Amino acid sequence: HLPKCIPRMQILIQTSLMKKCSNASPFLSPLIASVRYSSSSSPQLGNFSKPVSALRFKTRPASKRKLGPGQNEWSVVGYSSAEALDLLGLQDGLQQQSLYSQVPLSEDLEPSCVFVTNKYNLDGDEKSKEIFFFKVGCVVFWNVPELERNTVLKFLRPYSDDSYEDDVVFEESEMMSYKMSQTENPHLEKGIINIANDSDVLVKYTFSNAIASSVKLGSWEASLDKIIDSIEFISEDLKRNANVKIKKNEVLQKTGEILALRHLINLSSDLLDTPDFYWDREDKENLFLATCSHLAVAKRTKVVNEKLSHCLEVMEMISSHLSHEHGATLEKIIIVLIAIEIVFEVLHFIERKFGAFEVLDPKPT
Q: 63: burial class by Cβ within 10 Å (0-12, 13-18, 19+)?
């Protein structure tokens, strides 16, 4: 009985306080008003349950991005701008622009990545500006200011296949910091990249490759969020009236979108496995795996696959439901046609037995 007594106790306390303060100083009037407001707006214990959508999910927590590099640190920023980049056309465009110089990487990286540095040092910074362009549609900037990064992203538009929206590009970006290591070995310490030799391009490529994997996964997570939002009404309709207002073609189209995204994540990318580049480079592989672990690439990939599986289960259930409804409709039509045929057979039998019906065979006047 205690929960039922709480509102009564609040009313008694409020009434006694009002009586005692009626003749008191006017400075107590705000206190009285606050007591009146708190008592009137106090929640009831039995009304705290609210309906929750079946497909509602927790949003992915924002990645741990720093506001900017600290002292004696420089920025490393990665973006996923499109599904793919035309690297051959991009190299021609960079040569015509004549602002960056291409630096050759390893031979096995030439088809998948382009690395450039700035030709002119107008800022007087001893550190050069370096950019990694990946064929999968990602770009990673080392020590490049924000204004120049935005300019380069706009420059990539003509060489991009299926460009993402600007909101997705900037929302799913990753920012880290790097500094010169106090040791002889490059490593990742407390989320900060430590570079032993500033001219070691392959080490920077390794860190950039991990960042590119994270931002590409982020863009696919954004695509999955849109798919989930588009099919959320299905569970709501089933919960309210056990009826789904969706066509068979729409179910097939949505299933195709889910399967295409699943194909990109599990078959067309290296999110589930270490790239071949690191097979004979164990030191680089350790850096790559440590950076991916810091960015939670493996955990996020697992969560995305679980969500995709759940979406596929929903669409398979709806497809089966629509097929069952279609079959039931056909059965009803067949039953009606059989009933009509039986009626005509009965009439013919009566006609042969007792003669023709005047209604069915009227005599001419």
A: middle
SS3 of the chain: helix, strand, coil, percent, to 5: 55, 15, 30
Burial class (CB in 10 A: 0-12, 13-18, 19+), 139: buried
Q: Which two tokens stand for residue 316?
A: 């398979």
Calpha distance 51→41 (Å, rounded): 21
The model's pLDDT over 64-84, given as tens digits with 9 standing for 90+, comes to 454 566 666 789 999 999 999
Taking the whole predicted model, whether its pTM rises above 0.85 is answered as no
The Cβ-side half-sphere exposure at 337, using a 13 Å CA radius, reads 6
Measured between alpha carbons, how far is 181 from 349 in angstroms, rounded to an integer?
102
Helix (H) or strand (E) segment spanning residue 355: none
**pLDDT single digits (tens) 197-253:** 888 899 999 999 999 999 999 999 999 999 999 888 887 777 777 677 778 888 888
Name the residue among 62, 277, 76 with its Cα closest to residue 191.
Answer: 76
What φ, ψ does residue 199 adopt, rounded to 5°?
-95, 5
Paired tokens of 223: 């695509």
CA–CA gap between residue 149 and residue 237 (Å, rounded): 45
**What CA–CA distance (Å, rounded) separates 51 from 287?**
46
Q: Are 116 and 124 in contact (CB under 8 A)?
A: no
Using CA atoms, how far apart are residues 355 and 358, in angstroms rounded to an integer?
9
